[in-house]
Amino acid sequence: MSVLELDGVNKTYGRGSSRRVVLEDVSLRVGEGELVAIWGLRRSGRSTLLRIAAGLERPDAGTVRFEGRGMHGRDSDEVRRQIGYCRRSFGPSDGRAVLDQLMLSQLARGVNPAHAIVRVRSALARVQAGRCAELRPSELSGGEAVRVMVARALAAQPHVLVVDEPTLGVDLIDRDQILALLRSLADDGLAVLTSTDKTAGLAGADRALSLSEGELRGSSEPELAAVVPLRRAGAGREGP
User: Fold this and answer.
1) 142-154 vs 172-187: helix axis angle to the nearest 10?
2) C-alpha closest to that of 155 among 179, 129, 184
3) Residue 120 and residue 57: Cα distance in Å, rounded?
């Protein structure tokens, strides 16, 4: 069953001679328990595609639906709450501990403080970042920052997780562990949509599609296919 659907999505930036087509007639389905990775070079439109999929940006044309409901329809706020978009940035209170930052996100959603603390600690434990709770954002390593951003999204208990370039700025060991984490979240039933500009970042995906010159290439529909294998533990390190 597809929980996230994009149909005929178009997006253009600029006008006249500076006009740039970023997405052209893009369609995509992401199923429950599926990990889909979008590969593309810089400025290929990967981030735009993911922001549109998460409901953070409107397409110029086409539709985006979660479980059949329009992302920008009458109940758009409720629909978008079902999608967790992972961002690494923190608010103006960057000096606060990670636990405080994640609590603020929950309280802003109207979650009871007692429930919020349980959700946040559970999410941090799920991504194996419990030790980061008392650290400040500036004290996190690249891999820890990714785990914390995923935990912040998971605390909201979404049905879809959208992660733009999760392995950007992390070392090889952290990269493999983060990709394994995303794979495990999909195995738990979460629909996961991610992006990368390196083929190594496709490991663990059920489907890998490429985006170039506005066109999304690959199978847009969920299908039974071999999962892109994760790098074996202890295997030799490859280049970026």
Assistant:
1) 20
2) 129
3) 27
